[in-house]
Design a protein that fits this description.
By secondary structure, the chain is of the alpha+beta class. It is built from 14 helices and 11 strands. A hairpin with a 4-residue loop joins strand 5 and strand 6.
């Protein structure tokens, strides 16, 4: 399948990744309520009355602004990075599993949350989502994977789970590309992307591909899938996935890099160089992505026996980042 990327990209329903000359961000929310992280790092919340043109903007540093015009976020938005309990607590007649999970959550007892996930079917989805999130935050890869697999294999949408809706909100911060990450509210798509990231860390790429291929075709899933296909050497699929992609922003620039690598590995050196040129056509892209493009193009030149051109690209990286991993050794090999 081919993906066309735009300046504003929907990561999932209600969440958009927006690009501008001033930076990147993510906006999350629904009609009448949106939280925004501006390109300069400022966080703000916008509440509006749909159809009236009236809105109220509150920055998280405490300042507020009322407006008769709907606020237009310059870039996208975030939510809490830790589980945030609502003021509402389980009532006297709430089911025991619900009370037990709420108590474990407020105490931060991840082991107890995991036990509840395995033993209490009525709250398994919520408990496994919570445990997977907390284990992922603590970089406990295997435990996080076990819990998110439990959520994924259920086939259910965790965002509409009654416990989640009543008591907690979760926001996963996922890496979409080197130097580019975005907060994503809990959903089946987010769980799939997080699970694929964990499986990839554990060198279980085939399983990760199987998960991502079941997700909605968003910018986030395109990046994840292109990287996984590349790691598995499935170059023809990388080419198909990135068909018609042009350099419009950081994400599409990275997709161009993946496409160039695939063309090179398939032996289409001219096509590879054209694609790398597209990835490098503007200096406005994230330096990490530009450096990757130079490195991969240098390898293309080396495959063609053009060692002087390969060295020139590597020296471009050296001029901007002398600590680039493996760069000194690669330059030495070209002498």
């Amino acid at each position: 399948m081919g993906f066309r990327m735009r300046k504003s990209i929907q990561l999932m329903p209600g969440v958009r990744l927006n690009m501008s000359r001033s930076g990147l961000g993510v906006s999350a929310g629904v009609k009448g309520f949106r939280v925004t992280q501006r390109a300069d790092g400022t966080l703000q919340r916008t509440v509006s009355a749909p159809g009236t043109g009236i809105s109220h903007v509150q920055r998280l540093d405490g300042s507020t602004q009322a407006s008769v015009r709907t606020a237009t976020p310059r870039a996208a938005a975030a939510a809490p990075t830790q589980p945030a309990s609502h003021r509402k607590k389980p009532g006297w007649f709430a089911p025991k599993p619900e009370k037990a999970l709420y108590a474990a959550m407020t105490a931060g007892d991840v082991a107890q949350i995991e036990q509840i996930a395995r033993q209490q079917p009525t709250v398994t989805l919520a408990a496994a989502s919570l445990a997977g999130y907390l284990r992922m935050q603590a970089s406990q890869t295997q435990s996080a994977t076990d819990m998110l697999l439990l959520v994924w294999s259920s086939g259910q949408e965790p965002a509409i789970d009654p416990f989640i809706q009543k008591y907690v909100s979760l926001v996963f911060t996922l890496v979409l590309a080197p130097g580019v990450s975005a907060p994503m509210p809990l959903s089946r798509n987010t769980v799939g992307l997080a699970l694929a990231e964990l499986l990839q860390l554990m060198s279980r790429q085939v399983e990760a591909v199987d998960v991502v291929e079941q997700l909605e075709p968003t910018a986030a899933s395109a990046i994840s899938l292109a990287e996984l296909y590349a790691e598995l050497g499935r170059w023809s699929e990388v080419v198909e996935l990135t068909d018609q992609v042009t350099n419009q922003d950081d994400l599409t620039a990275l997709l161009c890099v993946f496409r160039g690598v695939a063309m090179r590995e398939l032996g289409y050196y001219d096509a590879a160089r054209v694609t790398f040129k597209e990835a490098l056509k503007t200096k406005q892209r994230n330096p990490v992505i530009r450096h990757r493009a130079w490195l991969e193009r240098a390898r293309c030149y080396e495959c063609e026996g053009k060692r002087s051109l390969a060295r020139k690209d590597l020296e471009r990286i050296l001029a901007e980042d002398s600590t680039y991993t493996g760069l000194a050794d690669t330059l030495a090999e070209l002498d």
